[in-house]
Design goal:
Largest sheet: none
Strand content: under 5%
Number of helices: 15
Helix content: over 70%
Low-confidence stretches: 1-16, 281-298
Radius of gyration: 30 Å
Mean pLDDT: 83
Oligomer: single chain
């Protein structure tokens, strides 16, 4: 007896072909997405979904393509569908939160990131996005707490310390801000923003000399930072005023103390004129020759 195998039912063959074609369309779409051809990728993702409507991964990646195309409402729709098909996909919540954030819906960001954290408490990006949302809402303590979790999960990331420092600054916790910004600078010593923000914290504590040093370092790294230049000018002026108040104080009776402060004022004036590109005073060389001002050697 000649043996033979029964043919597969026709509907089964059609289903297998559709699933295979959907996979091929998905793979083609991913290649297009990686190469930056997002509009074409969306078309291929859509073709895959026509062939396989419950393809959760396709919804997720088409949503990401919409993110890149700045079509955030469409991205939210696709992430929502991806979540419906795969409720444990924490990344779908995070990226949907991102889309809500672009649209200014901070409370939705908080909700989605909270759900992502429930699914996976180790996702640093969820704390970062929620921290930004809290910050935008003026909820600086919650923002600082989330950025703290970000630090715990990514201790080598300077941006984590930078973000918490900004939240501390809004809470007028300037000492804590300085500590975090110092750590950020140790990790990334070429970040002008960290120097500028630490300068602001020093400035708020009336530590003008340290503020001036940080503003100067920020300008060295980014000469176009007009905020640092303007803040440094204000710090110079405030330091000068503070020193004059010391000289005029009845408590300063010893001539040696007065001389030191006067010399510091002269040094400050020289520095201010140099930063402004102005010529030195006519008596500057005389003062240097008489060595009324001695600067410490490096």
């Amino acid at each position: 007896m000649i043996g033979y195998s029964c043919p597969k039912p026709l509907h089964r063959c059609i289903y297998l072909n559709a699933e295979q074609d959907a996979q091929k369309a998905y793979e083609q779409a991913m290649d297009l997405l990686v190469s930056g051809r997002c509009t074409e990728a969306v078309l291929c993702f859509s073709q895959a979904l026509e062939l396989k409507p419950d393809f959760a991964t396709v919804y997720f990646n088409r949503a990401f393509a919409y993110n890149l195309l700045n079509e955030q409402e469409k991205a939210i729709e696709d992430y929502t569908q991806a979540i419906a098909l795969d409720p444990e996909n924490a990344w779908a919540y995070i990226y949907r939160a991102y889309a809500h954030g672009v649209l200014g819906r901070q409370e939705e960001v908080v909700i989605d990131c909270g759900k992502a954290i429930e699914i996976n408490p180790k996702l640093a990006l969820a704390y970062t996005e929620r921290g930004y949302a809290y910050f935008q809402q003026g909820r600086y303590r919650e923002a600082a707490a989330d950025f703290g979790e970000f630090i715990n999960l990514t201790p080598g990331d300077s941006s984590a310390y930078y973000c918490r420092a900004i939240a501390y600054s809004e809470l007028e916790m300037h000492e804590e801000s300085i500590v975090d910004l110092t750590t950020a600078i140790e990790i990334n010593p070429k970040d002008p923003g960290a120097y500028f923000c630490r300068g602001i914290s020093y400035h708020n504590l009336n530590r003008y000399q340290q503020a001036i040093e940080d503003y100067t370092r920020a300008l060295d790294l980014n000469p176009d930072c007009t905020e640092a230049f303007e803040s440094r000018q204000i710090a110079y002026s405030q330091l000068s005023t503070a020193l004059h108040q010391i000289i005029d104080s009845p408590n300063v009776k010893k001539s040696r103390t007065r001389t030191k402060v006067q010399d510091l004022l002269w040094k400050l004036d020289v520095a201010m004129r140099e930063k402004q590109g102005l010529k030195p005073h006519a008596d500057e060389d005389d003062r240097m020759d008489k060595k009324l001002l001695r600067t410490p050697s490096k």
